Write a sequence for this structure.
């Protein structure tokens, strides 16, 4: 079973990193394409990537959406004895929730369910949890229990989490059972303390930061590191970027260029570094401009390109805090067995951008709570 592990430096056993391997599994989109159901699904459950970042719901409710391209998940355990769950480690939300035995939605019936009756350390909170999605919702109750994200007895005790009682239909196609949010506590629904905040409070991490490496090709190798950075996963210097909003991991982008010409974000724009979004998402006019410059055409919400021309397509460069972060075509073009090649630039809201997995696969991302900064370094 894939599980968390602890890496300690040779010079000092106290310098420990809690690492959770992430598996790159089949996405919901890939499964639905394989079943010939994707065209029907995309109409019934349209993708609204900006729903979870709607400021109207920033406190008291956690909007989310059906990102059918999410593929990375890790395994945690809850309870005593431990019950295992696949979760998306999501830097764009703050709550932990998993399916429970109280849920009979189709989305729960094909996922692991938490049974509080078999855990000796479970305590009922008595509160309710409601999380709005772009095309549905998750409702449930809150409880407390021990959450383990590493071996060797390292555990977060009395962690508040959600036990789902109903889930939106699109969740049944996702490999992950639930979500572990890693954004700021001010975003958390029902005032629940996020897992990482409890990890910091209980002294389980050496530094108040976590970092994410997403492998580009293989199913294995991706990892979330709590308490530090792993130099095995990046090269060159780390660029530290101050947050512009300490709610999400939000930063200021200066511009986006193709072949040295500004094609989007002229004069600056706001972007959220989000492990829980698969694409790079921006305002429709900006995304259309980028896709036009790289030679993509719009079709049914996707931007398609010639699979034989990827090597000739230009880089797309994000200028952030005086540094250049370049995404080559080999990184921003995704190939489907059934639908050809499409870019990883998707339409979103009016002003906000999301730097999702397409970006993070190229740049090792460090989320620093101590200094309220994001660190970016070239991924190996």
């Amino acid at each position: 079973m894939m599980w968390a592990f602890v890496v300690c430096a040779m010079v000092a056993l106290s310098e420990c990193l809690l690492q959770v391997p992430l598996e790159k599994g089949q996405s919901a989109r890939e499964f639905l394409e394989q079943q010939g159901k994707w065209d029907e699904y995309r109409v019934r459950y349209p993708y609204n990537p900006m729903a979870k970042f709607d400021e109207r719901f920033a406190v008291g409710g956690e909007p989310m959406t059906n990102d059918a391209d999410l593929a990375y998940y890790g395994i945690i355990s809850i309870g005593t004895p431990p019950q295992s769950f696949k979760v998306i480690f999501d830097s764009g939300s703050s709550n932990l929730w998993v399916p429970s035995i109280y849920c009979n939605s189709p989305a729960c019936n094909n996922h692991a369910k938490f049974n509080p009756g078999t855990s000796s350390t479970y305590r009922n909170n008595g509160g309710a949890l409601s999380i709005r999605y772009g095309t549905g919702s998750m409702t449930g109750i809150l409880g407390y229990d021990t959450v383990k994200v590493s071996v060797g007895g390292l555990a977060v005790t009395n962690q508040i989490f959600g036990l789902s009682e109903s889930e939106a239909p699109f969740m049944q196609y996702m490999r992950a059972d639930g979500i572990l949010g890693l954004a700021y506590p001010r975003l958390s629904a029902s005032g629940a303390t996020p897992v990482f905040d409890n990890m910091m409070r209980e002294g389980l991490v050496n530094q108040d930061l976590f970092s994410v490496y997403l492998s580009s090709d293989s199913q294995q190798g991706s990892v979330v590191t709590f308490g530090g950075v792993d130099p095995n996963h990046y090269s060159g210097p780390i660029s530290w970027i101050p947050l512009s909003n300490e709610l999400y991991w939000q930063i200021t982008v200066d511009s986006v260029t193709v072949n040295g010409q500004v094609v989007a974000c002229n004069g600056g724009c706001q972007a959220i570094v989000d492990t829980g979004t698969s694409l790079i998402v921006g305002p429709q006019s900006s995304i259309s401009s980028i896709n036009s410059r790289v030679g993509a055409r719009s079709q049914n919400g996707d931007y398609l390109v010639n699979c034989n021309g990827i090597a000739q397509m230009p880089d797309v460069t994000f200028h952030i805090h005086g540094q250049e972060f370049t995404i080559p075509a080999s990184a921003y073009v995704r190939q489907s067995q059934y639908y050809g090649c499409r870019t990883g630039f998707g339409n979103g809201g009016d002003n906000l951008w999301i730097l999702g997995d397409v970006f993070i696969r190229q740049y090792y991302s460090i989320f620093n709570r101590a200094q309220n900064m994001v660190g970016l370094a070239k991924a190996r």
Q: What stands out?
A: The two ends are 25 Å apart (CA to CA). Helices lie at 28-35, 38-44, 106-109, 195-201, 284-293, 329-332, 357-360. The chain is about 10% helix and 40% strand.
